[in-house]
Amino acid sequence: MINARDNAIFTAAVILSMILTPFVVMAVRALVRPEAQDTDGVEAPDGLSGSVLVVGFGRFGQVVCQSLLARGVDVSILDINANRIRNAEPFGFKVYYGDGSRPEILHAAGAHKARLIAVCIEDVKAANLIVELAKAEFPHAALMVRAFDRGHALDLIRAGVDYQIRETFESAMTFGAQALEALGLTPEEVAETSADIRERDQERFTLEMTGGIYAGVGLLHGNAPIPAPLFKPRKLDDIAPLDQIAPVIPLETALLPAEDGVVPVVEVVKRKRAAPKRPPAPK
Questions:
Q1: Mean of the pLDDT values across residues 206-214?
Q2: Any residues with CB less than 8 A from the CB of 52 and at least 6 apart, and which?
Q3: Coil, strand, or helix at residue 179?
Q4: Hey, which residues does 263 pair with through a beta bridge?
Q5: What is the residue extent of each domain of the chain?
Q6: Is the pTM of this model over 0.90?
Q7: CATH number for the segment(s) 52-167
């Protein structure tokens, strides 16, 4: 039998281990140097002059290169993974070894001559650093960047890239469309739904650029049940003033459907209050 004192000690030990484990892991990562890569058989860039510089030859960059190479575009490819570079060679690819977040590597890879720089890596921090370098050192080149997620895409837009795309957006859209077809919807219905999703997504992006990641949340198709109000106000005057409503969702970003589309809830309330009152029905 475990007495109360021993139970308290065991409980405290478990709690302390849960608290300290993340810090121990971070300390180990900081103290232990990563194993150096074997760069035997790989070549560093030197004096490259391709019209397109592709940074990152993983699952994303490989597909991007196919379109460019199919049209005979002169492409210089850079990657930081030596094993990936060696594995690409038997498939007919020449990939150079180097860290694209270093300005001297970008220069050696021909960024100063490239018409377009395509950042295809999945490391958000490194991608943002390359964007910063490219905007400062190579402003002549168009800058296209793979976005890791929605938040990263918003950051890239603010950074002024010429084009960004979330790495899973198009494949997820296609997957969803195929799911609707499998459920029996007609091609016209599937196309209409896909167009609606794209339009809503773009509207959300516009709102999120100024209102934050939760702006435009009303444009999402959710599946959470919406609770009915406990009672319905008898008249508009019973509704509390706007400045007294608890800001669970900021009123300037919350949306409601209206006759002319989806508009902020503040605008809906203002319209209703400004509308002329109907005369009472004759008794």
A1: 91
A2: 68, 73, 74, 75, 76, 114, 115, 116, 117, 118
A3: helix
A4: 256
A5: 52-167, 171-219, 236-274
A6: no
A7: 3.40.50.720
